[in-house]
Write a structure and sequence with these properties.
Elements lengths: L8 H8 E12 L2 E12 L3 E5 L6 H8 L7 E6 L2 E2 L7 H5 L2 E4 L11 H11 L5 H14 L15 H13 L5 E5 L7 H16 L4 E4 L3 H7 L2 E6 L2 E6 L1 H4 L6 H10 L1
Helix pairs in contact: 4-5, 4-6, 5-6, 6-7
Bound molecules: adenosine-5'-diphosphate and magnesium ion (MG).
Protein name: Peptide ABC transporter ATP-binding protein
GO molecular function: ATP binding
Organism: Mobilicoccus caccae
Length: 257
């Protein structure tokens, strides 16, 4: 992409980076869980975050969407500091889609209803428009025929795909996934991963915490290995997963591969 000559370095950065995390710290009481994280995610990039349990991956994602308030550093979204007290958190949240390990669907609503609710409540869309957008996104995840089903009538993999459709229905600029397949029976993992793969192919900007090393290797533009609240190593998946530099990365991969 080329920029006009008058573009400042700041403009260039904010055009290119959807999220910038700067010296992020997070403590719970006396325990420092994130010890200074720096990273940026470019528009259209897929970043996979790997690392042992307890290394701070979920906390990092939860700080990016402000489910947790950082204790130090800042998170910039489209160049704006969303950790600033004056920033409207709901504004940022409506532009981020989050998919959790547990799908967190409303059991009393249908698949369509789950995908419509926040569109109406947060974005102020009419019921008709919300329904149309929801239907389109259920089709996108291969569930166009199941809009009237309640979560209890769907498999775990289908429920997770509804959760993805629900997030997509908000037209997010960035999708955050926290171990989206970890709660699924093994035979249901593939369908969810292939939906995520097609989103990546469409150019969606994605940050994905995952233990699916084959997915990370195939789909990620960049892999980040975290351990003990810091980024130990990051780079192209062929390097970080295929030929890691750091001993800690090597021993983690030996345990999971
Ligand atoms: P990961 O997702 O990599 O497994 P987490 O970010 O969930 O790691 O957790 C990192 C560390 O922070 C763990 O030791 C966990 O016990 C601790 N932690 C996470 N959330 C809280 C919380 N709300 N209160 C206290 N400790 C927490
Ligand atoms: Mg976690």
């Amino acid at each position: 992409m080329s920029h006009p000559a008058t573009t400042t370095p700041e403009d260039t950065r904010s055009n290119r980076d959807v999220v910038v995390v700067a010296d992020l710290h997070k403590s719970f009481g006396d325990v420092e869980v994130l010890k200074g994280i720096d990273l940026s995610i470019h528009r259209g990039e897929v970043v996979c975050v790997i690392g042992p349990s307890g290394s701070g991956k979920s906390t990092l994602l939860r700080c990016v969407n402000l489910l947790e308030q950082p204790t130090g550093g800042a998170v910039f979204f489209d160049g704006e500091d969303i950790t600033d007290v004056d920033y409207d958190i709901d504004e940022a949240r409506s532009r981020l889609g989050m998919v959790f390990q547990q799908f967190n669907l409303f059991p009393h609503l249908t698949a369509l209803g789950n995908c419509m609710l926040a569109q109406m409540n947060v974005l102020g869309r009419s019921k008709a428009e919300a329904r149309e957008v929801a239907q389109r996104n259920l089709e996108r995840v291969g569930l166009g025929e199941r809009g009237d089903a309640h979560p209890s009538q769907l498999s775990g993999g289908q429920q997770q795909r509804v959760a993805i459709a629900r997030a997509l229905s908000m037209d997010p600029e960035l999708m955050l996934f926290d171990e989206p397949t970890s709660a699924l029976d093994p035979e249901l993992v593939g369908d969810v991963l292939s939906v995520m793969r097609s989103l990546a192919d469409e150019g969606m900007t994605m940050m994905v915490v995952t233990h699916e090393m084959a997915f990370a290797r195939d789909v990620a533009d960049r892999v980040i290995f975290m351990d003990g609240g810091v980024i130990v190593e990051e780079g192209h998946p062929d390097q970080v997963i295929g030929d890691p530099t750091e001993e800690r990365t090597r021993s983690f991969l030996q345990r999971v591969l």
